[in-house]
TrEMBL record:
Gene Ontology molecular function terms on file: GTP binding; ribosome binding
Species in which this protein is naturally found: Thermocrinis minervae
Quaternary context: Associates with the 50S ribosomal subunit.
Binding positions for GTP 1 per the UniProt entry: 7-14, 54-58, 116-119
Binding site for GTP 2: 178-185, 225-229, 290-293
Tagged with keyword Transcription regulation: no
Top-level taxon: Bacteria
UniProt keywords, alphabetically: GTP-binding, Nucleotide-binding, Repeat, Ribosome biogenesis
Protein name stated in the entry: GTPase Der
InterPro entries associated with the record: G_ENGA (IPR031166), GTP-bd (IPR006073), GTPase_Der (IPR016484), KH_dom-like (IPR032859), KH_dom-like_a/b (IPR015946), P-loop_NTPase (IPR027417), Small_GTP-bd (IPR005225)
Amino acid sequence: MKVIIVGRPNVGKSTLFNRIIKKRLSIVHDMPGVTRDVIESQAQWQGKSFTVMDTGGVIESGDYISQEVRKKVIQHLEKVDLILFVVDAKEGLTAQDQEIAKLLYPYKHKTILVVNKVDNKKSNLNAYDFYTLGFDEVYFVSAQHGKGVAELLDRIVRDIPSEEQISTAGGIKISFVGRPNVGKSSLVNAILGQERVIVSHIPGTTRDAVEIPFTYKGTSFILVDTAGVRRPSKVEYGVEFFSVGRSLKAIELSHVVCLVLDISEGVTRQDKRLAGLIERHYKGCVIVANKYDLVKVPKETVENIIRKELYFLDYAPVVVTSAIKGEGVSSILDEVLEVYSDYTKQHKTSFVNRAIQNILKEKPPPLYRGKEVKVYYSFQKSTAPPTVVVITNYVEGWKENYKRFFIRRLREELKLYKSPVRLELVQKE
Ligand code: GDP
Ligand code: GDP
């Protein structure tokens, strides 16, 4: 990811550059027009790294930009992912700012207008002139005092996938989590022992887990085992010794988590805790109600109980099994395939926007401080999990229960019936 800082001389580009890279090395000078070349450096924010470039004195002072400089700048603009167009709130809008804005216009979709030198509320006043330049995203900062820089950095790294996001390259990563004795290893052994499952080679061991690759219906899977699920014999720990630590690791490393319950004991507090972890990590999930041979109620009743107790995992299909009798076991991987298909679905921006308009028409967010909460724009930023960004005028206007309703409806509209959806609200004035 590459970010470039452009703007006329003396607006504070190198001050901002130094803020972003957290160094105070390059010389900040008051004399406009001192020619410098493009400086490049690595920057980090929220554990994500990116390259930041300062065009320094490439654009010289004066109202017009020469053909030569124009070419030089355009070369850089083509290559970068994000452009920070810096202007000076103290000086106000100048003819040269407008010249540069024209130059940036073809790259409007990846340009952020940064109004610098907003040191206090007073200088805020002439800042609004800059909206006439026509850029959608505007940030107000004081590079010198560091004001507003954190928000700008949040925006810069927003689209960089976090390193924690696990790759979908090697296959579908699945794990079995649940309290001790619910039947995890019995289920895993039953699945890996199935004729249609081909365990391809000796398990690989990473620092955190044993990974067992296998193929089912032509699709590559990787079983992530952090708890020694396949151990033939093991020490019995009491429920009080059960730690969520290992389960947490397995959840983090998976795309789809199979949450195993011993349904003869109903849905316990520990089960709910694990379910909560899966939800909070935005993982796909299949709920496996095991030991069905021990209960005497219809499958529908089992499902109803689970739906009621684990209502927040409403996107997770339920499979009723008996590992001992080998019943229902083969449905687990079929459900994993369906969950994963939704989990990795990517929708076009036009489709997402239409879906969101439908929801807003049906039920808009309640007024926030007497004002309408609007959605300006939205798009699906990434998959695994499907993440939808909504640009709104008041992030705080989105209360928890409305968000819950909105996400549920969004899943319906986008036909992501079996996947969680992550909603990212971004504020724009
Ligand atoms: P560049 O030519 O665009 O790289 O601008 P510089 O970073 O060299 O800054 C030009 C001048 O503006 C310097 O005197 C800086 O100290 C000053 N400056 C930069 N940022 C701010 C700011 O946020 N507030 C104020 N008041 N001055 C700033
Ligand atoms: P884990 O600790 O979750 O891996 O559970 P195990 O697979 O080791 O199973 C714990 C105990 O439950 C063992 O005695 C299994 O034989 C038994 N068990 C596993 N699945 C079933 C099932 O579907 N029905 C019944 N009745 N017992 C089961």
